[in-house]
Amino acid sequence: MSATALPPAVVLGAGAWGTALALVLAYRAERVYLWGRDAEAQRRIAADRVNARYLPDVRLPSHIEILEDLALLPAEVRTAVLVTPFQSTREVLSRLRAAAPQVARIACAAKGLEAGTHLTAPQIVAEVCGAGFPVAVLSGPNFALEVAQGLPAAITVAADTAGFGAELLERLYSPRFRPYLSADLTGVAIGGGVKNVLAIAAGISDGLGLGANCRAALITRGLAEITRLGTALGGRPETFMGLSGLGDVVLTCTDDLSRNRRFGLAIGGGQSLAAAREEIGLVEGLVTAGEVVALAARLGIEMPIATQVAATLRGDVTPAEAVAALMSREPGVEARHPH
Question: pTM, whole model, 2 decimals?
């Protein structure tokens, strides 16, 4: 903990990323509360001072307090960081509002689009907590294990107000963790969510043994798809060349710590969808792929890579057929001649 301690905060979600962010916050905060939905797992973490399931080699400092019941969150805790699996965002927010109404601002660190609504995290916060409720998005090229180990990393902090953004910069900054401020909530939320679909595509390509050229093409053209969708929704083009766009895409498409990439590798290598799901566990891109394609169709945005990933995940095409469909498309234009 630093010499000038900041007021306490709560992290909602005691998985790998939630635990890693609690460790980051603990560098500056006098106390960090770490809440998880599994009460028995929370008791084990509290007793062992280690999150054995997700980060077994990282000890938690004494001023990270493990919380089983949100109703026991002290009244002075006003800032929450939401890191539960994305599809539980609405349910966890509702629980938080009922049990701890003193929380006055929320930073969302899970990535995706809500099933059935295509909503981003800030949009869900607005529906559950009310329009104007202070909200932020944390997104960037970060694997939880490396952050928890104290290896250097950077993250984008997109906040709807300058005040909340400044607070989060102060809370997150440390000699090993560098936050960058953005005012583009939409762009940062879309980049973080959609890149999981692209990571599955890159994994499929590598699982099929299609080589580095194919992977690079998928990453580049996939980033173009993310940018088209994000700007159509109001995001800024430069956001998608930043940490929460290009940075996150490169990381999750090229490193096997990414569950989404590993899932793609598995099915590209011949595993069934069910077997890959069983082996890897939570893969946010499984739900996000269909939501991205539906949202793009509603907006009239062309996203051929995402479309083929979604078709593969539905079982409509094989991974090899999806690649063949992409390669048989008419030649496209990357940059047009000036008129």
Answer: 0.95
